[in-house]
Design a protein that fits this description.
By secondary structure, the protein is an all-alpha fold. It is built from eight helices and no strands. Helix 2 runs antiparallel to helix 3. The termini are far apart. The relative contact order is 0.06. One of its GO terms (cellular component) is peroxisomal membrane.
């Protein structure tokens, strides 16, 4: 049997396994880990590339090392979280009050465990990585927005009147946007140490470094 025939036979055997419904739940864990890693790399790499080359000092080699580290951390975190979440969901599905069926709060408890294991624990040095902080803050912001929308959704939230709900939904965003920007500018001015490092660097570039120049060159082309 030639090498090509062996490869085709192996591919056929593997496809028979992955298409078997009996293994679908378990293979979904591997697929989720793969997707988490790929998505994390796709999202983090361009962001780290731009932010590090724009705002970090150091040699090109040092910057590339930081980009690789940030990309790897983001990919690993999402892959680990997806694995823990999927495995926990699978476990809860089999030990719940109705084996074989998903419980109403299984997603919450699986997310809770994954969030603690992957994003909630500190390193051996007692630190939490900036990448983990960014991911958690991103998720937290989306949770707040979703809960705010849910709170005024007729029949579900606190507001029962469709007319009042529509009015609040229309008027709430301008107030929220204004309050958010007013708060971050105040924090950046008086308590910059509390602002996330990436955001603080970009704000320093826009609002602080724009106050200093000594020639047309560093007024128009680059900061002093």
């Amino acid at each position: 049997m030639s090498g090509i025939e062996v490869a085709k036979a192996s591919q056929k055997a593997l496809e028979k396994i992955i298409l078997n419904p009996k293994y679908a739940d378990y293979l979904a864990v591997l697929k989720a880990a793969r997707n988490g890693a790929v998505y994390g790399a796709k999202v983090r790499f361009p962001h780290a590339l731009v932010m590090i080359f724009l705002f970090r000092s150091g040699t090109v080699q040092e910057k590339l090392r930081l980009i690789f580290k940030a990309t790897r951390t983001h990919a690993q975190n999402l892959a680990k979280y997806a694995t823990v979440y999927k495995m926990t969901m699978l476990l809860l599905k089999h030990i719940g009050s109705q084996p074989g069926k998903e419980g109403d709060f299984d997603t919450f408890f699986a997310g809770l465990l994954g969030g603690y294991i992957v994003f909630g624990r500190r390193s051996k040095r007692g630190h939490i990585s900036s990448v983990s902080k960014q991911i958690v803050v991103f998720v937290f912001a989306r949770v707040c927005l979703s809960l705010a929308e849910l709170s005024v959704k007729p029949g579900v939230g606190l507001i029962k009147s469709p007319e009042l709900s529509k009015r609040i939904s229309r008027d709430a965003w301008p107030a929220f946007a204004a309050l958010s920007w007013g708060s971050i500018m105040w924090l950046f001015r008086w308590h910059p140490d509390t602002v996330q490092s990436g955001l603080k660097n970009s704000m320093e570039y826009i609002y602080v470094q724009s106050d200093h120049w000594d020639s047309l060159r560093n007024f128009l082309i680059y900061n002093k």
